[in-house]
Amino acid sequence: MSLYYDLVPTGIPGLDEAVGGGLIRGRTYLISGETGTGKTLLSLSFLINGIYRYGEPGIYVSVDETYDQLMNGVKRFGWDLEALREQGYLEVLIPEMDIIEKIREKDPITVAKSLVYTIADYAKSLEAQRLVIDPIAPLVTLEKDIQVLREYIRALVMGIEREVGVTTIITTEIPTGARMISRYGVEEFLAAGVFVMGLAQTTEGEFKRYLFIRKMRWQAVQPTILEVEIQPKIGIVVKGPLKDVHIPFYALMI
User: Fold this and answer.
1) What is the CATH number of the domain that holds 89?
2) pLDDT by residue (tens digit) across 5-27?
């Protein structure tokens, strides 16, 4: 466990033990992976555990789902986010769906600053200590806009750490089979830690979900592949080291 940083426990069963106690308070962490690997559930587990186990209010920014889609999904899973909102422990923000057009038309840094100020206002009123942005940028974009989105992501992450001061998880989805660990090639450099989620196949042909601890800045944590399960009403549960499985080499490149 670090002697120099205040660590924030995630409350996710098995994860805090694997990362030496938790995440560095006030820093940003990336959850990357293909679709269906559990990124949203991991990030929501971080928020919900923060509320129930540690009394830390949180903010969830849903970029690619409407409010109704999100609430209907979590309700089917067994979570009642609306009750947490009513009790003042959680805020759910849904950016305008045309945010990608705003980024194209305006200075991306200006758009990022606007979102940072909005988050900061909610964080102050809620006394929030945890934040999730899922995903960090709109999923529908053109190749020619990659550099613009990189500028937006950089300004957003740095602005949140400087102006808001919460412990943040951002997610990014990578295309199936792509040889990358983030969608825009900048998220992993800005984050203090990187978790890659995926599906692995055992020698018997069974598929298992995994969490690869790829990077933990300023913490003595070795890269580790852990098996994870999704449990209704609980979220993500980390079971322990995963062995005897085939994982694409590009997911593990250090």
Assistant:
1) 3.40.50.300
2) 699 999 999 999 999 999 999 99
